[in-house]
Amino acid sequence: MHFGDFLALLITVLAPITLLFYFVRRWFDLKQRKLEIDATAVAEKAVQQATRNAQLEQRVRVLEQIVTDGGAQTAAQIEALRAIPVDKRQVNA
Fold this sequence. Notes:
The protein has helices spanning 3-68, 71-83, 86-89. The protein is mainly α. The protein has one domain. The termini are far apart. The model has no long low-confidence stretch (mean pLDDT 84).
């Protein structure tokens, strides 16, 4: 085997294999980055849901108190709720 034959073998066999490994690695890096972005989005959504859940639980506690308290306290609490601006009372869906 001469040096020219060896060089031809390197060019025809190893160059495509090297390129293939390069592109496969890039593809896996892209997939990993996409999974990281998706994980971040899911975590952010979980935080939003937890916040919304806490807000709803607080509203339910207030409503439970209104339902179980006497008439004078109920009227005062209803008036206190009316004093809160509408945009702060509403929970985004």
